[in-house]
Amino acid sequence: NAADAISAKGGIQLLAGRLVSLPPHLVLPPAAAAGYVFLAVRDDGAGIPPDILPRIFEPFFTTKAFSSRRGTGLGLFTVYEFARQMGHGLMVESTPGKGSTFTIFLPVADREPATLPVHGEI
Question: Which of 39, 59, 62, 86 could disulfide-link to 73, CB 3.0 to 4.6 Å?
Answer without folding.
Answer: 62
